[in-house]
Every structure is written in C-alpha cells, then in structure tokens.
C-alpha cells in the first residue's frame, strides 16, 4: 500500500513539474481540478471505507468462512462471483469492500471470483452499456463471460492447493 502511494505521489510530482515548466497556469488548473475531484469523490470514498470497516466487524467470521472461505468450495466461488457483480461503483468502492470480506474470512479463490464478478458482470454498469452501446451487445457480453469469474476462482483454488 505504501509503495503504491509513493509511486502515485512521484508520478503526480513529475506531471506537476512538467505542467509547471510548460505553463504555471496549466499546473494551477490541474491542481484545482484534482481538488474538485477529491471534494466530489470524498463522500463516496468515506462511505465505501466506512462500509468496508463495518462489514469486516459485523460479519461473523464463521458465516463468512462457511459461505466464502476455503471450505465453501465451488458454492463459494459462485456466491463470490454473484456478490462481486452486485457491488456498485468503481475500484475505489469495490476494493475496500472486497478487502474487508477477505479479512473477514473469505478465501483467496472466492475473493478472486468476487473481483472477477465485479469486473466482468457489474450489474451497475448494465444500464449505461444498454443505453450507450445496445441491449444485444450487453446480452452477448454477459453470456460470453458467464464462466470466467467462477473459472478464475477455480484456477486460484488450484494454485493455492499447489502451494
């Protein structure tokens, strides 16, 4: 986590230096736009991290382990895939929730299925995709990716069993 934060800060500093070298007004505009984005996203970020923390403390570890843990088997991979599809929003919302479920006792294979379900099936994206691309495209995309989130979890299960 720290290394990715440092990397992002370094990239931001380099871009700021490039912008300032070209035109100080451009650099100032970039900082202002970044600040506005932060202000707009702050309620969503706070609620996502609050939800993640509450999930981790409220969900009984035994139940999480039973349905999403290593012993849940293929049932856990299916539950993880569908649960991932139900998570709304981008990675700033999904990953704190996924992390908290993992910390609450979900196994690596189920967590992999969860992430794959979120990224491939995200139900929250369907209205945009249907409206902007087409209903037929959305249907074909969903049907053609149905096996992949559980399959990703199954591959993760095999990998974790080898070690």
Protein architecture, described:
By secondary structure, this protein is mostly helical. The protein has one domain (2-162). The chain has helices at residues 2-22, 24-58, 61-68, 73-86, 91-103, 108-121, 126-132, 135-145, 148-162. Helix 2 (24-58) runs parallel beside helix 5, helix 5 runs antiparallel to helix 6 (108-121) and helix 7 crosses helix 8 (135-145). The two termini are 24 Å apart.
Oligomer: single chain
Instruction: Write down the Rg.
Output: 20 Å
CA-CA gap between termini: 24 Å
Helix content: over 70%
Strands, total number = 0
Structural class: mainly alpha
How many helices? Answer: 9
- Helix/strand order: HHHHHHHHH
User: Major beta sheet, specifics?
Assistant: none
Q: What integer is the average pLDDT? A: 90
- The parts where pLDDT drops under 50 for at least 5 residues are none
- Structural shape: globular
Integer count of domains: 1
Q: Percent of residues in beta strands?
A: under 5%
